[in-house]
Amino acid sequence: MAKKQIVNTPDAAPPGGPYSHAVVAGDFVYLAGATPHRTDRSLVDGPFLEQARATFDNLATVAAASGSSLADAVQARVYLRDLDDFQAMNGVFAEYFGDEPPVRTTIQADLPGFDIEVDAVLYRPAC
After folding, report:
1. Exposed e or buried b per residue across 103-126, where buried means at least 16 C-beta atoms within 10 angstroms of its C-beta
2. Domains with residue ranges and CATH for the chain
């Protein structure tokens, strides 16, 4: 029986607490919430679109480290500090998830010092 596989990568912002970047379990990859932080833990403290691109870049980097990509996403959850950023987020989301986007939930959240966080579940059939 296959065990879960923990995935961490130095190429994405480090987790902000005692959790992994991702966990591979069976045919699925669970990506932890990505935020607009750099690999040195500093915050991308710019306008919303800058923060959104940094967040999705981190998410894509972790997906790649797990042997997958955001094209394999089946579910995504987006947490926004300000729902006025919803339309801008939609544009960036489409850039990263392409023509066959996953299901998505968008929630307003009291994020600590940044504007966006995104997590995802990917489908990656075991070889």
Report:
1. ebebeeeebeebbbbbbbbbebee
2. 5-123 (3.30.1330.40)
